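# step 3/5: fold
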Amino acid sequence: MTAHRPPFRDPSLPFARRVDDLLDRLTADERLQLLHQFTPGADGVGLASFRTGQEALHGVAWMGPATVFPQAVGLGATWHPELVRRVGEAVSREARAMRAKDDRVGLNVWAPTVNLLRNPLWGRGEEGYAEDPALTAAIATAYTRGLRGDHPVYWRTAPVLKHWLAHNNETARDTSSASVRPRVLHEYDLRAFRGPVEAGAVAGVMPAYNLVNGRPNHLSPYIEEELRTWTDQELLVCSDAGAPSNLADSQGYFATHEEAVAASLRAGVDSFTDHGTDGSVILGRLRRALEAGLMGQEDVDRAVRRQLTVRFGLGEFDPELDPYADEARFDTPEHRELAREAAEAAVVLLRNEPLEAGGPLLPLADDGRRIAVVGLLGDACKRDWYSGSLVHRSSPLDGLRERFGADRVTCVEGVDRIRLRTASGAALRVPESGDGVGADAARGTEGALDPALLVGRTDLPPLTADAAGSELDLVDWGDGVLTLRAPDGRYLSVAEDGFVRASAEEPGGWVVHETFRLEAHEGHAHGHLLLHLGTGGYVSVAADGVKVAADRESAEPFTVEVIERGEEAVARAAAGADTVIVVAGNDPHINGRETEDRTTLALPAHQERLWRAAHAANPRTALVLVSSYPYAVAEAAAVLPALLWTAHGGQAAGTALARVLAGDVSPAGRLPQTWYAADADLPDLFDYDVIGSRQTYLYFDGTPLFPFGHGLSYTTFAYRELTAAVDGETIRISCTVTNSGGVAADEVVQVYGRAVTPSVPRPHRELLAHARVHLVPGASAPLSFAVPLTALGHWDVAHGRWTVEPGPYEIHAGASVADVRRTVLVEVAGEAPGPRPVLVDGLAAVGYDEQSGTVIVDRTRVSGDAVTPAVPDVPGTLLFRACDFGDGVTEAAVTASGAGELTFFGADGTTVLARVTVGPPDDPYAYTTVGAACHIRDVTTFGVELRGPVRLAHVDFSCRGSEEL
């Protein structure tokens, strides 16, 4: 080492040594400043400024034009890890290339999202990969490997997994608590994170806004107890935006912000994303917490060390050795081709039945027949909240015209054409703007760190009212949420000055200012008030233009004058075509997105009318659903000859769809989540117990509309020679699949396992492995899978460990969870788990086998769980099966807080063994131990009934003297 080259600049030293050296050279205040998302530099040691966080879910987002790949749920639908790895690689290359020109582009990328798609009403379902933890882990591992790069030392980008942990609701997302029992925690939620972390391509995680078992995720004990035990590498935990403040604000978990930041730092949060680019507020809180002794310098240093480790890995301190320093690949032909390939691979053919006249409707014959593209998304290429700006754009109409010729393809959108008239008879008019600049100028798509800060245009004239008015295109996106569009194609929007203008190219923004709702007006027989959803104000006509008023009293009543219904135009177009392609679905900024859950699985009524009108006019009608989530379309699935689904497919979506419809590519996407037939099939959105409430394909007892893994092809496949054998700690599975049809295509071979004689509720079937293979007609592929024996296991709550029960297991191979082609049986040897050793360990309340009417809460603010009635005045019950009381006990002692009554009962559910009163309720974290006589023996079921706001943590048992049992 030379005098001018300190150890942290010496690339021959290990990162840990270099990090320690750099840390020692930083002052205490410089170290503290590194805890905010936007860290300043430290000139004394030549440390540059840095920021954590660059959105990159399916392309580089929020920083202007970039290649846009299919939504994450679409990537999940490919069931194709290698393809997804290549997508991640392309995204990371573009991040590097963009950063070379704009240092606001970060290399610590916040992607992917691995929250499981437990409930299809979750507003952010578009961000996840699948409802299954194994599939999610496989796809996430592939994406993070692509993001990371394959250099053994340096990383192209540093991926952060979102959102730790059990986060599936936007409603009350910062104050709601997910009740997650140990089996669900270990068998479901943790597994999605564990796979990619153990694969070594993950730089960190981001905690979720919600609470789990009564404790905010930014204080999750599982960060240290689970996450950091899965790898030897340092993991950087970055808070979600504003979440540190929530701890003392909306969540009220601490009385002061100083307590909150100290507790989250000690729990393992290393970087605080709060108050945007202004770090002064968080740093002030951290300083005061440090001064008050709420945290120590060692806590600060530990977090800083983790951030610096990531920065060393990104090559920041070794630019001459960084293999990715000169990366310049951006919007290359290879990336464009990959975007198309990914979009094609994501298309799922749900139904393709023969027509009366012969074969199935799809693929479309290239024989000169006329095609009508109808529907609200027929000429749309939608972006979502985490998309970049489109460099290229291809809608279904674009793709079909490119494939079949513009002269053969017509398009009717199916909007309702209306005028909005005031009580005086005047109608809203869109003035001539004289401005050809689109909404991109308004929305700042040249790049912004946070699109939530973008505002609408005020340079265009507002709407007015006159006798003639303007025709407006009205779309009802469901739940009465409307958009209104001017004749020039721009959407009505409300800017910060309150005026209504035709100024937006698309609905968008953190607060969408392009959506309205018509509300019945009591004083006007046929009138409605027009509510602007973004501001909560009502539209009125003033002398200086149309604006949003503050309240209903000053609002203008409007009459909707219908010029033409969308279904009328659709019916005409359908009748004049040989084949109709109805393209329906969602706008990702409306009715189901971050901050907003869906209320129903139903396709919006407006779009229901359109496909029905098309089918009535022309039976050769296919419905293509382009959406971020599943729909319950039972009638469409029963009567239409063809039905397809694809997520919003990015820049090449239209070209990809057209190639699938034409048969240039056989569809091979598979559903990554169950499509339910009706809302009644779903549990409550806030019910996270997939086992107890029988959720997802793993436990659902009903008949889905389309099952997990479903997807049809233009050819057929035969399965044969399935074998499975236990080889030590591995199950070795093999089978052969053959393309038995006449079209070259991909098949997704899915392997499931099922415990035949389980001692506890287990999945109907559970995905063990899968492979996507391409086969020409007549070709066969022998496939082999090495599945860890532990994949057949479950979390044993009786002993607090993962276990694989001995006994028979079925191994299934097929085309979906419901389309099993071959089955074999394997026998797993070993010792069966014994009964609960309650005389030694007692009973942890959270370790129940079954429950009714209870939720799990935090035992302390740091760690531990307790159980309490979900509704204090409604009793809750817990059942613990196979409890071994030996020769008998005479006394039970409960550890509990709060106030209420606990009743113990036996296996028959009626015999009362003991009653314990707990109270009074001073501090919910002040636990007391209360004993009572309780006589029970042998191996049996033990039950507890809880009444009142009591928190039960533990029950211990003892035998005193030689009392008669």
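# step 4/5: annotate
Residues 16 and 309 are 7 Å apart (CA to CA).
# step 5/5: archive (pending)
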